[in-house]
Design a protein that fits this description.
With 331 residues, the chain is of the alpha/beta class. It has ten helices and nine strands. Bound molecules: 2-acetamido-2-deoxy-beta-D-glucopyranose (NAG) (3 copies). Keywords: Glycosidase, Hydrolase, Signal.
Amino acid sequence: MNPLFLICLLFAPLLFPHWTPTTATFASGVGFLSTSSRWVVDQSGRRVKLACANWAAHLDPIVAEGLGSRPVGDIAAAVRSMGFNCVRLTWPLYLVTNASLTSVTVGESLRRLGLAESAAAVAVHNPQFVDLTLIQAFKEVVSTLDRHDIMVILDNQISTPGWCCSKYDGNGFFGDTFFDPNEWLRGLQIMAETFNSSRNVVGMSLRNELRGPKQNLVDWYRYMQMGAEAVHLVNPNVLVILSGLDYDKVLTFLSVEQVELTFEGKLVFELHWYGFSDGGDWENGNINEVCANISRLMMVKGGFLLKQGFPLFLSEFGVDIRGYNQGITIS
Ligand SMILES: *[C@@H]1O[C@H](CO)[C@@H](O)[C@H](O)[C@H]1NC(C)=O
Ligand SMILES: *[C@@H]1O[C@H](CO)[C@@H](O)[C@H](O)[C@H]1NC(C)=O
Ligand SMILES: *[C@@H]1O[C@H](CO)[C@@H](O)[C@H](O)[C@H]1NC(C)=O
């Protein structure tokens, strides 16, 4: 058995004492979500546990991945059958702010990237998508997920369509080449408004993994607060989810100063945590000691928010399972 898997099974209850591997079904009655202290709850105040799968739609073609492999409904059913009740659906800002993309269809977008085979494959598995515009296709994915009782968190992954993230990709922080704060606020509002009547769109992550040489706290507070207000103004139903600095590994600064918003009951924070960010400790150290150390560290980086009365969404986590070293070989 994978020792790290074992460790993390032991470890999860420490960080999330009320977490169990079962997930609530998102049935029609659940309604929109809000927060109650550190919990996310439904309209009748019952706790809703988000168990989300990531589905990427922020890559170069701006088309949800996999539509060339299986019918969209099959993908949604597979997500559900694996026990997830939610999808974190990623989108690039350009999807809604770049005028040259407004009328581009799924087929055209794939073909102009030289992906004629993918376009043909989409025509086989999801023919109804080929002539949809990119935003229509994105909406169709969201409503398909709804038909399968799957909640959606819209995650603004990046501005320019493509793989995310590096410090110098011009997408890292407010003011970077492709990250104009006003364009971002406009894009958030368009998305929030577009999905204002989609009952399964329960949250919006305002921006994935802020990072890079420009990152600073003054702008973090200024723009994250503005982003949260902008979304809430046009779509008061969704949870607004704020990510931290340094690739969303750090929210420590919130222990000193909280964000100030005009509304309540909708604010969630998110944190990312990958084993490979721990500087080789898992491979080199005594694994029990490393586990204790990293658990402590995670509480300092963001776990303390639970005690402050905010939900914390662990929106990306993982270990390198390519088998490069003993510690993480799955056998
Ligand atoms: C819009 O997108 C195209 C294609 O990705 C890009 O070349 C162009 O620079 C973008 N325009 C703006 C105003 O961001
Ligand atoms: C959603 O936004 C549209 C466009 O602004 C608006 O006409 C509509 O009333 C809104 N619907 C809800 C449920 O807020
Ligand atoms: C755990 O933390 C302690 C105290 O900071 C340190 O002395 C020790 O080397 C760390 N152990 C590992 C395996 O990282």
